[in-house]
Amino acid sequence: MLTAPVYKNISSIATTTLITKGQGFGSVDKITISNHDNSDQVIIKLYLYDGTNTYVITETTIPPLVTLVLED
Predict the structure, then answer these.
(1) Which of 17, 48, 52, 53 has the highest Cβ tally under 10 A?
(2) What does the pLDDT look like over 59-69, one tens digit per residue?
(3) What span, in angstroms and rounded, lies between the C-alpha atoms of 45 and 67?
(4) 44 and 58 in contact (C-beta within 8 Å)?
């Protein structure tokens, strides 16, 4: 089971898989999403796909230079 943090730098408008089910990550207890832009807000949509169903975790706007932290 992997215990080290996983980092993804996303700089375009696209659907990006953060972690794929079954890759040995175990459970996720914290997700941090940062908007490093100095002037533009970003809209994020975070989903959980369990192999059958898709669940909406959050859909929100992150202002410039703000970090969203989701913890278990």
Answers:
(1) 48
(2) 999 999 999 99
(3) 14
(4) yes
Q: What's the pTM?
A: 0.76
At residue 18 the predicted structure's pLDDT band, cuts being 50, 70 and 90, is: confident
Give me the count of residues in the chain: 72
Nearest of 28, 37, 32, 45 to residue 63 by alpha carbon: 37
C-alpha distances in Å from residue 21, one per residue of 1, 18, 27, 36: 12, 10, 10, 28
Distances in whole angstroms, Cα of residue 69 to Cα of each of 29, 34, 52, 56: 11, 9, 26, 16
Q: Are 70 and 29 in contact (CB under 8 A)?
A: no
Question: Which of 53, 1, 8 has its CA nearest to residue 28?
Answer: 1
CA-CA distance, 72 to 23, in Å (whole number)? 20
